[in-house]
Amino acid sequence: MLLASSLQNPYVNADPASFAAVIVIIVAITRMWPQKRQGFDTCFFAYQRILYKGTTVDFLTSVYDSTQHSNFYPAESTGKSLSFSELSCFVTQILSTLELQELGGVYFQQLNTLLPVVGFSLSDFDSRWVYGNAKISSTQIDLPLQGENAVNGEQAHVYYYISSPLSLSQRESLFQLHDLFGKQVKHALSFMRMQQMATKDVLTNLGNRAGFEQSMTRQLGWAQRHDEPFALLVIDLDNFKYVNDNFGHGEGDKVLVHVASHLSNVLRDEDEAFRYGGDEFCCLLDCQSQQQLACAAQRIQMSINSSNYLRRLGVSTSLGGTIHREGDSISSLFNRADNALYQVKNSGKNSYHAA
């Protein structure tokens, strides 16, 4: 009785970690006494207020209403609220991963079975993270992810694309699911930040070799699932050893930082740069053709060659690149680009070659 009353109390204070605990308790109770299941729907909804540390959230408030049509929602509810089993299944699924990109896919699959949501986007975090059929002509609902910022530093939003008008009950269900998703997004972003700390090169603030391999694995998976190729560019600094031998390793470190800043300035948000090791850098690029890859390589080379500092030290760049092919592994893709790089190194340096 004490447990049940505490779960039903809408003003119990707890931190967000209570989320999983509350769900486990409710599921356990439901399995023990299935004949009382109808009474636990109320208990389930109570966890929302627990997670908000006693703050009651009105899902009908206009703060969530950012649709393109002010009168889009029907005046009367024609649907029914989500059942306990539907919510329990939903929570189980979104708790299955802390990888943000994968979490978005799991979330959309659940949304698509419960509501007329045909498209979903996490583009505030990565422009490629669009799921389903997010057409411009569809009605869009954008809901904020409280306390989280997009890559541009502004308030992050989630974008939903719906195929038909939502009833009031469906609207409330969407807000509930969004709220649940937002809690898991916080954990996923925390996990991502911890991973980034372990996969950053301290000197240049680019990704390190471990980060490169992690991102490469993710890119390969995306390419295989969506049939969307990407490109790899391997960059080696010409005459870097001369700088270390004649000016010291401190000056060599300055060169590495200088080159890293050029890469960061030239690359687009969807591209990634890494210090692979020593004076070798790698870039994962959103390029689908050799022409696009050649343009990206040219931009990088022109930027570095325009540096008076690097020119004074005699430092230039040799680049080798390749486009993902079906059946590629990390090693096959890297070796192809690396071999192209060394063709440049052996034929005069300060140039680009594609494999």
Give your account of this protein's structure.
The protein is of the alpha+beta class and 355 residues long. It has two domains: 108 residues, no CATH class; 146 residues, Alpha-Beta Plaits, CATH 3.30.70. The chain has twelve helices and nine strands. The strands form two sheets. A five-stranded mixed beta sheet has the order 6-7-5-8-9, with helices on both faces. It has a four-stranded antiparallel beta sheet with strand order 2-1-4-3, with helices on one face. Strand 3 and strand 4 form a beta hairpin. Helix 9 crosses helix 10. The longest helix has 31 residues. The radius of gyration is 26 Å and the shape is elongated. The protein starts with a helix and ends with a strand.
Tags for this entry?
355 residues; alpha+beta; Alpha-Beta Plaits; five-stranded mixed β-sheet; 16% strand; elongated; disordered N terminus
